[in-house]
Amino acid sequence: MPPILPPTNKQPQNQTQNIQPPFSSSSMDLLLLEKALLGLFFSVIIAIVISKLRGKKFKLPPGPIPVPIFGNWLEVGDDLNHRNLTEYAKKFGEIFLLRMGQRNLVVVSSPDLAKEVLHTQGVEFGSRTRNVVFDIFTGKGQDMVFTVYGEHWRKMRRIMTVPFFTNKVVQQYRKWWEFEVDSVIEDVKKNPESETVGIVLRTRLQLMMYNNMFRIMFDRRFESEDDPLFKKLRALNGERSRLAQSFDYNYGDFIPILRPFLRGYLKICKEVKETRLKLFKDYFVDERKKIASTKSTTSNGLKCAIDHILEAQQKGEINEDNVLYIVENINVAAIETTLWSIEWGIAELVNHPRIQKKLRDEIDAILGPGVQVTEPDTHKLPYLQAVVKETLRLRMAIPLLVPHMNLHDAKLNGYDIPAESKILVNAWWLANNPEQWKNPEEFRPERFLEEEAKVEANGNDFRYLPFGVGRRSCPGIILALPILGITLGRLVQNFDLLPPPGQSKLDTSEKGGQFSLHILKHSTIVMKPRSF
Ligand code: HEM
């Protein structure tokens, strides 16, 4: 039987070799096929009955007409990225429903409805959806980022706030962040290629972001990109992101009878998850426990985040698995998101030399040439802040936010939203809709000093939600903004950032995932040191 796969417009994936294709040719598959056909038959009957009942009960949002079992999946495909969903919004309006097999997917694309979901009905829509892959990586919601709205989430968020998300943390670690970007600058200057053919700066910045976060978590840093532990960690985190962000497993998540064909994929997910949590435990959490039993403080005399988290465990508030899932969450939520944004910011600055020069001139004028940007300085540099905001607007790292979910039947804009629907807020479109913004496709930081001067990244305007807003908004904004400011500020201060020889612009094609947006090709950049 030919594979029943939906039309997709996705890019070819760089897959791990032993992920099984959905349909392989073996006798095992005949058995599966028989089961699938039987399942299909009964599911059609059940789905028709349910849809008849549901049709009577619910006034559902508009959307393409679904067929039994598959819903809209055959028509829509797997690639539910922000741009494809924007096209559906243009057709069906500010709220629409896609029936993706057994899953209801509701997409909202207007500031008013974003406010309704994230703020006014923040409790009703404050849960997270699950899917077969996330269930593996989060131990069915034992973490914080992907757990439903309720007691467990409240407890985890409270426990994580003091060690991670306060201004005290920023003040305790900002000198380290400044040190880390300095060490990037030193390394770049030592590399003769950076001035001539150029370098892929991203790899070095990735080490910097790991060091920024592992300092907060464990009072640790990695000396170089060749550190074997760093390499292992990076590879496992990369694999986890790739497996979770891919659209390739959607078919098995949407259509339960196709789930047997995901066996190979899910097996790899389980292996990656187990190896990764073991690495966190053996090399970081247990190591820290040993140190804490002797010194109980960091090298500068203060507790690091894991000390606070382990205290909560000792008090019986959370268990050992929860501790590991907190480490897992910070690894996925903090490092790559901030790194993608730094990478986008650099690419836009290279492609807009006038803006780059204007930023450099502002820093020179306000701080004095050669005086290195610190965290308190970022508040005195409005153009730097505008560059950061514009990067997060045009190149939103999490363009659909992390999917929300309503645990119970709910109402939105006069429509019924069945319990456990996945709710996507198309935050990228809110911030890039020409009906709401002047020439949104243009990278123009000035907008945040002129017509949009009152708009902040913290969600004070529902057209601009790079970190979400409300109960499930990003608590990491307090760390991400200063890190972005210090990093972009110091790089521009110390180097002329240029495209590689023979190229006038960097390629800024995008790659979208389940809820990520990063640059498709990591750019090579020429970095000419400035002399002061
Ligand atoms: C530029 C960098 C970052 C961006 C653009 C970003 C964006 C976001 C977004 C859009 C959400 C989901 C909001 C929602 O669903 O309504 C989120 C959630 C979250 N972020 Fe960030 N984030 C960034 C950096 C960080 C950092 C540095 C940390 C931690 C140190 C962090 C920790 C979290 C956590 C824990 C959540 C889940 C909150 C919850 O479910 O209650 N993020 N982030």
TrEMBL record:
One Pfam family hit: p450
Localization (cell): Membrane
The EC number(s) this enzyme carries: 1.14.14.91
Top-level lineage group: Eukaryota
Biased segments, Low complexity type: 7-20
One Gene Ontology term, aspect cellular component: membrane
Chain segments carrying region Disordered: 1-20
Cofactor(s) required for function per UniProt: heme
GO biological-process terms attached to the record: lignin metabolic process
Positions annotated to bind heme: 474
GO MF annotations, alphabetized: heme binding; iron ion binding; trans-cinnamate 4-monooxygenase activity
Pathway: Phenylpropanoid metabolism; trans-4-coumarate biosynthesis; trans-4-coumarate from trans-cinnamate: step 1/1
Record keywords: Heme, Iron, Metal-binding, Monooxygenase, Oxidoreductase
SUPFAM superfamilies (alphabetical): Cytochrome P450
InterPro entries: Cyt_P450 (IPR001128), Cyt_P450_CS (IPR017972), Cyt_P450_E_grp-I (IPR002401), Cyt_P450_sf (IPR036396)
Catalytically driven reaction(s): (E)-cinnamate + reduced [NADPH--hemoprotein reductase] + O2 = (E)-4-coumarate + oxidized [NADPH--hemoprotein reductase] + H2O + H(+)
Transmembrane segments: none
Main location: membrane
Membrane topology: Single-pass membrane protein
Sequence similarity: Belongs to the cytochrome P450 family.
Matches recorded under PANTHER family: TRANS-CINNAMATE 4-MONOOXYGENASE
Protein name per its UniProtKB record: trans-cinnamate 4-monooxygenase
Organism: Arnebia euchroma
Gene: CYP73A64
